[in-house]
Amino acid sequence: MTNIKSLRGRDFITLMDYTTDEIKYLLGLSRDLKSRYYQGERYSDVLRGKTLLMIFEKPSTRTRVSLDVAATQLGMHVIYSNPQELQLGRGETIADTARVVDRFVDAIAARVYKHESLIEMAKYAVVPVINALSDREHPLQVLADALTLWEVKGRLDGIKLAFVGDGDNNVAHSLMIIGAKLGWEVRIISPKKYWPSKFAELLTEDSRRTGANIVISDNIEDVRGVDAVYTDVWVSMGMEAEAEERKKVFRPYQVNAEVMKKAGPQAVFMHCLPAHRGEEVTDDVIDGPQSVVWDQAENRLHTAKAVLISLLA
After folding, report:
1. Any idea which UniProt keywords this protein has (predicted)?
2. pTM
């Protein structure tokens, strides 16, 4: 395996900080680790003796379990906590917490309400800080998404992906970022009120370099001809007060059989999960033959391993 030494010791907060070659390296390593996994090589000593601290402000299934299993299978010790179990819950600052735990552990994975909390943590911790989800981005998720598309489409280049629903959510943002880095066409199809703020212009340089195309639209017809139709929940964690309004606004953007028919038989269906069945997606789509959501979920394990190895090995 080719080793990109520049990854060692880095934070993994946003893919905007990573080059196209570095992202392709992480994906290649993920694919290699998955192959080894199915050949029976599930456990390794490569990170034995190291410790991962996970701090989760929000509930989690895929991110928490995949990181925990990935770290354990690589020989790491894992500590899971929420702010109420730490002095963070009693008013200790993020900076002071980061300064302390930095002297104990080898990496910190944090799932936070505010992206700025990750920035603050990384400012005061020398060890790598991994974004396990913030309100702005979810880089671990889209790394697994890219691996899934590589597997089912046989390529990373020239992918056309339509994200349907809340265009200003963390997964939509991260899909735009990885799309710009890999030269994809990413179509954000969303009510105008929920179009992604600022991200398109932030990605102009990467898009120009790779030939990527970021399209923002409110027309569901723009799913036609894509390789993948992607959606996420309409009401993200922390937005429960807006639930009824959001359900009304997003109803025309439900991914159902009609939408998948517009996209075409070549299109796979993707969802980061958990899904609110009957809202953003119907049962016949998520459980149907075009769905790759369970492959996406599994690939969270293999890409988590790749990130941990690259930052710590």
Report:
1. Cytoplasm, Transferase
2. 0.96
CATH superfamily of the 141-296 domain: Aspartate/ornithine carbamoyltransferase (3.40.50.1370)
Same fold, 5-137+299-312 and 141-296: yes
Q: Is 282 annotated among the ligand-binding residues?
A: no
CATH of 5-137+299-312, one of 3.40.50.300, 1.10.10.60, 3.40.50.2300, 3.40.50.1370: 3.40.50.1370
HSE (side-chain half, CA atoms, 13 Å) at 176:
27
Q: What is the pLDDT of residues 185-242, one digit of tens each?
A: 999 999 999 999 877 788 999 999 999 999 999 999 999 999 999 999 998 766 777 8
Q: How far apart are CA 70 and CA 2, in angstroms?
A: 21
- Cross-strand pairs, 129: 108
So what's the pLDDT on residue 237? 66
- CA pair distance 300, 295, nearest whole angstrom: 9
232 is in an annotated binding site: yes
Find the length of the chain.
Answer: 313
Q: Which residues are catalytic?
A: 111, 138, 141, 232, 272, 300
210 is in an annotated binding site: no
Q: Is 51 annotated as a binding residue?
A: no
Of 250, 269, 310, residue with least CA distance to 9: 310
Look up tokens 């080059």; give the residue.
19
Q: What is the pLDDT of residues 237-281, one digit of tens each?
A: 667 778 889 999 999 999 999 999 999 999 999 999 999 999 999
Do the bridges between strand 160-164 and strand 129-131 make them parallel or antiparallel, or are there none, so unpaired?
unpaired
Domain ranges of the chain: 5-137+299-312, 141-296
31 labelled binding-site residue:
no
Give the rounded distance of the alpha carbon of 3 from its chain centre: 23
Residue matched to tokens 């894509």: 226
